[in-house]
């Protein structure tokens, strides 16, 4: 028999976890600590699998059924819902990592710009540049590492690349290491 909202709401925890079954693979797992988890049990190429759809009351019975139907559509298209979720999660994580990497490189580029400005001021005053030149070389090496060049596809990175190359030539540092 299919679950009702009241039967889900009134499900009480016991000493062991138990399941209340709905239909077409959907069930509510009630844990001893009182947690209620929506589960969808399915077979994909003969292998039995279970995925979690969410928790009750965060996800209602209606939403859990919609989630089950979405997973069933994926299965009918030859997509494993569990693997699909992993791929989506990995893609989101990759976007976050790339965003953080880009911010990190922009911060390093700002440091390079500060050092260059300081170096120009020192050069105008005819002060020894050895330490500043060393620091600039180190920062240029970091900015021009292969990973940066591989990720540098935006226009602002191209502009930054041109600027730092010009700075490198101005200070006779030679080509940055790649």
Fill in the keyword field for this structure.
178 residues; alpha+beta; 2 domains; 4-stranded antiparallel sheet; 4 strands; 16% strand; disordered C terminus
Q: What would you note in describing this structure?
A:
The chain is of the alpha+beta class. The protein folds into two domains: about 5-80, 2-Layer Sandwich (Double Stranded RNA Binding Domain), CATH 3.30.160; about 85-170, no CATH class. It has six helices and four strands, in the order αββββααααα. The protein has helices at about 5-10, 60-75, 80-125, 130-145, 145-150, 155-170, and strands spanning about 20, 25-30, 35-45, 45-55. A four-stranded antiparallel β-sheet has the order 1-2-3-4, with helices on one face. β1 (about 20) and β2 (about 25-30) form a beta hairpin. α3 runs antiparallel to α4. The radius of gyration is 29 Å and the shape is elongated. The protein starts with a helix and ends in an 8-residue tail after the last helix.
Show the helix and strand layout.
Layout: H1 5-9, E1 18-21, E2 26-30, E3 36-44, E4 47-56, H2 61-76, H3 81-124, H4 130-143, H5 146-151, H6 155-170
Antiparallel strand pairs: 1-2, 2-3, 3-4
């Amino acid at each position: 028999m299919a679950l009702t909202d009241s039967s889900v709401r009134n499900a009480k925890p016991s000493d062991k976890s138990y399941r209340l079954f709905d239909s077409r693979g959907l069930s509510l797992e009630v844990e001893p600590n009182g947690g209620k988890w929506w589960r969808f049990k399915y077979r994909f190429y003969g292998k039995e699998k279970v995925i979690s759809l969410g928790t009750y009351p965060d996800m209602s019975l209606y939403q859990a059924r919609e989630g089950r139907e979405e997973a069933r559509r994926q299965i009918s298209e030859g997509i494993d819902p569990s693997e699909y979720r992993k791929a989506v999660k990995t893609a989101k994580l990759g976007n976050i990592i790339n965003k953080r990497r880009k911010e990190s490189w922009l911060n390093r580029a700002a440091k390079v710009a500060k050092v260059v400005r300081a170096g120009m001021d020192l050069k105008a005053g005819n002060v020894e540049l050895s330490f500043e030149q060393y620091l600039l070389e180190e920062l240029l090496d970091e900015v021009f590492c292969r990973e940066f060049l591989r990720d540098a596809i935006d226009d602002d990175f191209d502009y930054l690349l041109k600027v730092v190359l010009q700075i490198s030539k101005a200070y006779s540092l030679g080509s940055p290491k790649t």
